[in-house]
Amino acid sequence: MSAPKTLQDWLQAEAPSSELAGVITTIAAACAEIAKVLRTAPTDGLAGATDHTNVQGETQKQLDVVSNDIFIKHIRQNAAISILISEELDEELHMQNQGRFAIATDPLDGSSNLDVNVTVGSIFSVLAVDPNAPDLLQPGSEQLAAGYAAYGPSTSLLLTFGKTTAAFTLSNEGVFMLDREAVQVAAQSGEYAINSARQRFWDAPTSTYVAQNIAGEEGELGKRYNMRWVGSMVADIHRILMRGGIFLYPLDSETTAKGGRLRLLYEANPMSLLLEAAGGAASTGHGRILDVVPTDIHQRVPVIMGSSAEVARLDALYAKAK
Ligand code: P6P
């Protein structure tokens, strides 16, 4: 049996360039440090909220700010990274170097779950930029790499350069060890994730899709579905990458004015690249998420992603409703 592979072994074999491997190493080091901080945060007085509101209009948790600061600290040490876009920063942060890479991140996604010790995560996307004329509004199909760290019972790191999705687990020695070379999302599933408390806001395709699932064995699909909603996108998407399913935060009557709930550059795009590289699908209901050309670094989009047959069924309902 060959020796277990580390993240560095995998990057040496899979990264398109040593510079990009270095960028992923920087991000992984930030995630490993965040994992360490989260483990004892409640007794270190780091739980709870600040009195600040971020650009999203959300109250910032102390750990949102701490995690963002950890990303900045590590990124400043890598001259290949010239720009950071973060959910926690109103504007992009320029590192005053000639780096050819930009990172977009939600440094601590799902932080409302921190106080109840439920899995949260860091989501990241890597873009190529001209440091003298950076184009940050690239469609997700242009991403060079994407991934997330899920801070749960173990700390997982999921990574893709667009072709395959690999999974790693953080060891007690602080080393990411390869779990799976090529994660595959089951095409079919019996599990869906949506915040059902928003049912009164749903559009017809979403309502029909969920009703078909709830109808179970007696319904037109002739199969039973289960529902899971963690309230932390990283946790829900990780479950889907591991055992199939579909994650729904579609446009609804309340989110339409903002274009959706979840952010394109540092939530929808990285998760879409990971899922498509694992054989899944990611749609807005009106097209592929990775084809959306951003208009703003904090743009929101509708999100329908996971098992390809499930996404296709909801997409067909949207097409029929046109
Ligand atoms: P709701 C967390 O705030 C987040 O951005 C995602 O991680 C999560 O999937 C979603 O919002 C939860 O939204 O409306 O259920 O609170």
From TrEMBL:
Its EC number is 3.1.3.11. Residues 187-318 form the Fructose-1-6-bisphosphatase class 1 C-terminal domain. Substrate binds at D109, G110, S111, S112, N195. It is an enzyme of class 3 (hydrolase). It catalyses: beta-D-fructose 1,6-bisphosphate + H2O = beta-D-fructose 6-phosphate + phosphate. Mg(2+) 2 binds at D106, D109, E267. PANTHER family: FRUCTOSE-1,6-BISPHOSPHATASE-RELATED, SEDOHEPTULOSE-1,7-BISPHOSPHATASE, CHLOROPLASTIC. Homotetramer. This is Fructose-1,6-bisphosphatase class 1. It comes from Devosia rhodophyticola. The lineage of its organism: Bacteria, Pseudomonadati, Pseudomonadota, Alphaproteobacteria, Hyphomicrobiales.
